[in-house]
Description:
The chain is mainly beta. The chain has 1 helix and 29 strands.
Amino acid sequence: MRNSENRLSKTTVFAAAVLLAVAAPAAASRHRAEAAGSAFATGQLQVQNAGASGCGANAAGEPSIHVSKAGLVGLSSENGLGGGSQYWQGPSTAAACGLTYAGQPNAIGGIGLSGGDTDSAFAPEKSAAGTYRIYVASLNLASVNVAVSDDNGRTFSQTPVQAGLPLDDREWIAAYGADTSLLTYHDILTNNIDVLRSDNGGTLYTHVARVIPDTDYKAMNNELGNLAIDHRNASPVSGGFWAYQSFVAPSSSSGSEFNEAFLGVSADGGHTWTSKPIPCTTAFGAAGLGHNFPNVSVAPNGTLSYVVSNDTAVYVATSADHGDTWSCSGPVSTSKRAVFPWHVATSAGTDLVYYGTPDGQTWYVYFAQNTGSGWSTTQVVPVHKGAICEGGVSCTGGRQLLDDFGVDTDQNGFAHIAYTQDSPALGGSGSATGYAVQTAGTPAGYPN
């Protein structure tokens, strides 16, 4: 139950930290980084004026970011359990502080009933309302709350997802077509990865499967990562689609370290799953790969890309046959340590982000890109000073960056990054959400 203990302690501690951070809001900041041909403009987003853009203060962290096919950037971030979530949206051409604050999706009557472990998705096809539906999922321990918007984030409706379980942990959400979405999470009772599906735009979710068979040793001994769906390549199952769930676990039933990456693969839209190992990851996984989180992405041509961190470096594995065979890279990161990788596989390459430190003290958002001629790296913006603790309940400090962040590309191939930073200043004890938009450099292509 290591992962559940870590996740629960993080969200509980974060809820208290939010109250302190609000009392001392971080000053707005702008930063521009140029290296290896890429440039970014960055800023901290405001929550003081709903419906307005501009730099300002917030106390949210661990964000999720996606860009719709219409070029709408959607960025969600969490306030911690009981605090709800925050959401910003705007055109992909907006400046670093140009996203508009859209309020709290996972809240009812202004009360944030959720607020842990946010994740979000855009539907890849337009709904009956003529928009790409937005899903924002947030954890509240007793259940998962899924907020849905059909008007580009101006208003949200809520669906509490219970699924008959007393406690849920670290959910992920992904969308398919105009009205279908999958929701996965750890259930506390078994530590297995449960799969729920909605075919009515998020109004109702039904439990359809578990990613790992209950008889498999990995069912109770894993750390899950994100969920991804292939929007462009047909599955061999009539009416089905390809879905992929990342997780790490011991390579054998006698192991205790999460030394191998695995991929749950479904060809029928989430109803049945096969767990496929990524054998080449054991070469660098001896010290563990749960550094947080494993992350899978699908290129428009169906090629799978999978990134992991062993707490020292970030590695990339790729598969062209739905996870049957894999090849692994050497270290992609260039810093002394690299954790919390996230990436997007595109039509012309891969964009990857991670938190890295060159000296063990100051941490930065790093942006790595490969468009066919090897990896180039940009140090984007400093976000934290001091140690990073990934131990959950054992942490006594160093939790400002929480556990993950995100990157996506727009239809023109430029990167958009959502990250967490110290608040009110570098080295501060609070957390705040920042946004970085690529302003120059090589576009990596459009996403799946």
